[in-house]
From TrEMBL:
Name of the molecule in the record: Corrinoid adenosyltransferase
Keywords noted in UniProt: ATP-binding, Cobalamin biosynthesis, Nucleotide-binding, Transferase
Subunit structure: Homotrimer.
The protein's Enzyme Commission number: 2.5.1.17
Entry GO MF terms: ATP binding; corrinoid adenosyltransferase activity
Ranges of residues in domain Cobalamin adenosyltransferase-like: 3-166
GO terms classed as biological process: cobalamin biosynthetic process
Family assignment from sequence similarity: Belongs to the Cob(I)alamin adenosyltransferase family.
Pfam families given in the database record: Cob_adeno_trans
Length: 185
């Protein structure tokens, strides 16, 4: 199989059910999810396998789920078969609660940073938020799987908590925003 097909040279790309413009909001949405998936891989290579074994397992599953989400968004036409489900959203909520239990209570807003792993996970968080915004736009304009939007919303929360856990496990405090007062607790 050849990697290049030349079928996109005119600015269109193939999706499940047809061809659309490469700058279509649908392509932007699943392309942003692909970008997020690559950033997760970048974050994972920074992690010590012993210290982060559980998080590495969860992130690998999330990478597969993001591939499913991209596939869901890449479908046009009538015969759609979606993979992202409410159960995936619920599982993310359970992971958020599990990892949040490792973290100290939040007193102030948290700035991205601390340890290298935490900073990488914060990058994942902000790209997950951007992907969510793209999917919100897509769902306003075209029909698609609404569970992908919910999944991305929880996923950004997951990355926030995972970034905090990374700092805890590295013995590095979160970087607190100091120009405001205590806003939590």
């Amino acid at each position: 199989m050849k990697i290049y097909t030349r079928t996109g040279d005119e600015g269109k790309t193939g999706v499940i059910g047809g061809r659309i413009e490469k700058d279509d909001v649908r392509v932007e949405a699943y392309g942003t999810i692909d970008e997020l998936n690559a950033l997760i891989g970048e974050a994972m290579i920074r992690m010590n396998a012993q210290v982060y074994a559980d998080l590495l397992t969860d992130l690998t599953e999330i990478q597969h789920e993001l591939f499913d989400a991209g596939g869901d968004l890449a479908q046009v036409g009538k015969n759609r078969k979606y993979k992202v489900t409410r159960d995936m959203v619920t599982r993310l909520e359970e992971l958020i609660d599990k990892y949040d239990a490792e973290c100290p209570p939040i007193q102030r807003f948290i700035l991205p940073g601390g340890s290298p792993v935490s900073a990488a996970l914060h990058m994942c968080r902000v790209v997950a938020r951007r992907a969510e915004r793209c999917v919100v736009t897509l769902t306003r304009e075209q029909e698609t799987n609404d569970e992908v939007r919910r999944y991305l919303n929880r996923l950004s929360d997951f990355f926030f908590v995972a970034a905090r856990v990374a700092n805890v496990r590295a013995g590095v405090p979160d970087v607190e925003y100091k120009r405001g007062g205590q806003v939590f607790g």
